[in-house]
């Protein structure tokens, strides 16, 4: 039984060491590849294409932000109107009035 435990411990140690060596080899290869690779400078046509894509991205982002802002404003206004109506519907009866949604006012009954 002691022998099996020793073999299991030796096997676990070997597996742990193997994993560490594999990780070290992977990191070494990745580092050497990243140092050896470098991008060539862009040609004028390539730079113009990149600039055109960045301009398109900026336009899409501006359009999307505007649409999102408008949607948020609409949602906020709807929620605000709903809460105002709830508040007025609870306040008007305290004074013997009813709330009129079309005029947003308390009316005498």
From TrEMBL:
Instruction: Tell me which positions the record assigns to the signal sequence.
Output: 1-39
Which keywords has UniProt assigned to this entry? Signal
The question of whether Signal is a record keyword is answered with yes
Keyword Signal among record annotations: yes
Q: Please give the name of this protein.
A: Uncharacterized protein
